[in-house]
Records
---
Amino acid sequence: MLHKTISLLGSTGSIGTQALAVVREHGFRIAALAAHSNIHLLENQAREYCPDLVCIYNKELYTQLKDALKDTSVRVTSGMEGLLEAATWPTADMVLNAVVGMVGLQPTLAAIQAGKSLALANKETLVTGGQLVIEAAQRHHVAILPVDSEHSAIFQCLQGNRPEQVKKLILTASGGPFFGKKREDLQKVTVADALNHPNWNMGAKITIDSATLMNKGLEMIEAAWLFHKTIDDIEVLVHRESVIHSAVEYVDHSVIAQLGVPDMKIPIQYALTYPERYPCPVQSLNLLDYGQLTFAAPDPETFVCLKACREAMHRGGLYPTLVNGANEQAVDLFLHQKISFLEIGDLVYGALHLSVPEGDFSITDVLDADRRARAYVLEQVC
């Protein structure tokens, strides 16, 4: 049994529920749980894992959750204050940040400042505040362990090699449900169409991001920060089978890749148990089941979110915050059928026209840029 105590932010989402399956398998202790609004699942999780604290981010549900858990000794909190408390809970050795969206930035910084090891599944943390996060991690000597399958794959491929030996990072993408389509083919895409991912079972926002290739754009930015590379050192390949989760090319042109079945429990477990490896409750990869693996170049003219993210990283500063904020707002509008699928990418790319302060920035500047990007999207729609 592994002796580790974890604070899990985003416990009722796709990553969170799979992380708890790993926790159950290996006997970790849960110090704190946090969720956005799935109060019934959060209550059940609290009863099973007996944390010291639970946080329901939606403050309107605080009283209901507190009443539901009044027969326990669990401390109940809510809002950003509760999320920050969960991220810094004293008995936690590690924080697994699996919340979705920009909301994950402040608890990430709080966990680092509290000296917690950080397993990071919230890519927006590095997209919007990469400079702040990496500098804080270095200052507090905190390890950031990637949970996304692609970044976990790169992290694994880097083991035993020196950073200066790396020539290129290769991020693989499933291509989502609309691989091979052109703009004219996507005029009448429905929400149900976009949520029909071919390989992965994920939450709604991340699934839409996969359909637009925004997810891969965000992962490019995240990889640049995590592995200290420029955006031009990162290549994206569409790999429909999702068997090769990413790869690293070295200066001698050797390419090392990490393979496995498309199951998030593998990278989640590796982050929680690093540097050790243990049996994982997933299917073993049998390449004969696939027969062949295929690769293709992405189409940034149809899936303009990918182009927007690359351009944002070239500009640097707060531009990645702009495209991320615009995307979060646009995806929400699309899920509520207020805009079309293609408008997501157009609005994300359009946000690059906003002006932002140059030079060093603070978390206040990040939050302001995020608000301006969301306001821009709403103004264009209304």
---
Amino acid sequence: MENNLLRIEDLVNNPTPRVPVCLCLDISGSMGAVEGDCEETGETVFEDGETWNIVTGGTSRISELEAGVEAFYEEIRADEMTVYSAEICIVTFGDKAICIEDFANIERQQELPKLCPAGDTAMGEGVNLALDLLERRKQEYQDKGVDYYQPWLVLMTDGKPNGDEEELARAIRRTADMVNNKKLTVFPIGIGSEADMDVLGQFSPKREPLKLKGLKFREFFVWLSQSLSRTSMSMPGEVIKLDTEGIKGWGEL
């Protein structure tokens, strides 16, 4: 209830047109995978439908993802225009989908929750929750007479969905319909060699999904914040071209 009141208060106190962005992040067990300089211990663990070697050293996907999200918030706070227009929501999905950071003025979101990898990849449940939260926030904008830009959905995963198949089908259908009707901009990003790019492509009928180069999460989120800044300086409804040249620094088809 308190968070609901704060969200409404933000709209009353700050009528700047908003850009709602939902980060829908995979935190399944495989996101604990390590890359870089590491050594195998000889032990294994079964996680997220696969057997993984336990190692020491290196850098985990989840720790780099956390650092990337932190950089995203830092970049937004440093932009005097975007800080008033951007609203970020974070949904994570492992065994289940959870909203760990709801929409609010970004200045209220000082300490981001810790991301802990565990469980399977309930991607459909995650996307459906993200879309529900975006729709609810859009309705709040409309109720308070606040203009808004086309919502953004950032979907990041390093595996194949293994949650409820009906939820996945519904999530793909909803997302594709919204994209085709110009009601949503979606950024599907694959992480590592196990990411199911075919499934990610089904969420994005207008744009090919991209694969992250290595663990370049920070580079991706800095690029995303710059794209968000260009959007916040435009007029709602105006078509903004993405910096496709900048994508080369962190992504590949």
